[in-house]
Amino acid sequence: MVPSVDAPLDGSINVAVDCAVSLFVGIRNRRDVRDEVNAELTSAVRCFLADSLPLSSLGVMPGRFAWRLYIDVSVLQVLLKEEALISLAS
User: Fold this and answer.
1) What residue segments make up the domains of the chain, in order of their start?
2) Strand 59-61 vs strand 68-81: parallel, antiparallel, or unpaired?
3) Which residues lie across from 21 on neighbouring strands?
4) How many whole angstroms separate alpha carbon 79 and alpha carbon 9?
5) Strand-by-strand arrangement of the 12-19 sheet
6) 3-state secondary structure of 69
7) Which of 21, 33, 44, 62 could form a disulfide with 8 if both were Cys (CB 3.0 to 4.6 A apart)?
């Protein structure tokens, strides 16, 4: 990707989290709930990455080329065990 003029070293990160439909069986308005959970998890992953991975570290050639990362997470199962939430993702 070509970085912006304002940030010639910055790359970008695109994040998408998708929870399996099977996680929402028996919930009313499950499509709305699923969309809301997906949006919240996407936002959480995006914030985590923003704090731990500076966009300037994705620059290769100032003003000419930077990496764009696509991170897709599929949550297939959620297990509750000893008050800890464990998500299995692929």
Assistant:
1) 12-89
2) unpaired
3) none
4) 40
5) 12-19, 68-81, 84-89
6) strand
7) 62
